[in-house]
Amino acid sequence: MAPDLKEYDEEQVRLMGEMCILVDENDKNIGADSKKTCHLMENIDKGLLHRAFSVFLFDSENRLLLQQRASEKITFPDMWTNTCCSHPLNKESEIIEEKQLGARTAAQRKLEHELGIKPEQVPLDDFKYLTRIHYVAPSDGVWGEHEIDYIFFIKANVTLDVSPNEVRDVKWVTPDELRAMFADPNVPMTPWFKLICNTFLFKWWEKVDTIETERDEKTIHRLGF
C-alpha cells in the first residue's frame, strides 16, 4: 500500500506530484508518472525507471560543493551528497534530448530552487556532460531510487541562498576532505553519491579543467546491480 503522505512535510508532498520522465533501460522516453509513483519501492521492484541528473559544481580552487539534504526530504533525508541531484520533468523544455538540453535546463532550475544559484551564474552551455549511470537504491523500505542519471560537471563562482526546506547544510571540499568524510561512519552519504565516488569521481576531479576529454555520450554504466 502507498504510504499516507500526511505525515510528511507539506512542500515536499507537493513536489511529489511533479511528473518525471519514464525511460527504458536504454534511456528511451516511454511516458511519464508522478515523482511519488517513481520513488515507491513497490514500483521500483517491478522495474519502473525514470530519468535524473547529478550536478558536481566546482569553484575556482577546484573545490566541490556538497549539500546535506534537509530533514524534510521524503527520500534520503539528512544525507550528504553532490551539489544537486533531481529530475528533468515531463514538460517541453526538459524532455529535449539533443545535447542533453532537457537535463541541463532541469539542472539549472534546481540549482536555483535548492541553493539559490541564479541561472546567469550557471549558463546551460557551461554544464559539461560526462556520462549516464543506471542504478537502484532503496531509501527506507518504502521509498527508493531507480534512475538513469545524467552526470554534469560545472565550474562557477556562485552566490548561495540556500532553501532550508531542501538543504540542511553545505560544504566546499577538496578530494582529501571528501575522502575523510567517507571514512567517517557518522557521516551519512546518499547511495548514488557513493557509487559515483567509488567509480569515477576522483579520477574525473583530477581532470576537472580538461573534463571534456572524459565525455562519453554512448555508454550507460550499470552500477550497484
Automatic annotation (TrEMBL):
Q: Known InterPro entries for this protein?
A: IsopentenylPP_isomerase_typ1, NUDIX_hydrolase-like_dom_sf, NUDIX_hydrolase_dom
Q: Where is the Nudix hydrolase domain?
A: 48-195
SUPFAM superfamilies this protein is in? Nudix
Pathway involvement of the protein, from the record? Isoprenoid biosynthesis; dimethylallyl diphosphate biosynthesis; dimethylallyl diphosphate from isopentenyl diphosphate: step 1/1
EC no. given is 5.3.3.2
GO BP terms, alphabetized: isopentenyl diphosphate biosynthetic process; steroid biosynthetic process
> Which cofactors are required for activity?
Mg(2+)
Task: Tell me yes or no: is Methyltransferase among this UniProt entry's keywords.
Answer: no
In its keyword annotation, does this UniProt entry include Magnesium?
Answer: yes
- A GO molecular-function descriptor: metal ion binding
Catalytic reaction annotation? isopentenyl diphosphate = dimethylallyl diphosphate
Keywords in alphabetical order: Isomerase, Isoprene biosynthesis, Lipid biosynthesis, Lipid metabolism, Magnesium, Metal-binding, Steroid biosynthesis
Q: Name one GO cellular component term.
A: cytoplasm
**Top-level taxon of origin:** Eukaryota
Family the UniProt entry places it in:
Belongs to the IPP isomerase type 1 family.
What protein is this chain from?
A: isopentenyl-diphosphate Delta-isomerase
Native organism: Phascolomyces articulosus
